Amino acid sequence: MNKLQILKNAKKELAKEGFFILGVVGSFARGEKFNDIDIIYETDENFENKYLGWDYFVKIEEIKKYLEDVLNSKIDLINNSSMNNIAKKYMMKDFINV
Predict the structure, then answer these.
(1) Whole-number pLDDT of residue 83
(2) Domains and CATH numbers, the chain
């Protein structure tokens, strides 16, 4: 199974918790040699209410480690809501929906 298919399967599991993988960007998305996989995500209100304060960051780190394990690659998680318009303009040109 390729990495995109593995990510699609993980996406279904994580969505149950309110963590939504939107897609990938960067060198992996462009099909180039990559050191990591840059994943754009967002969370819903249920996730944010369940994991308050520091617990939110701990859970995000747990998800990152889970994805690194299943994909056997280093992962960078990028919160969609934290990107400004300039970042979105340049990063989203290579965006692959998962």
Answers:
(1) 85
(2) 3-97 (3.30.460.10)
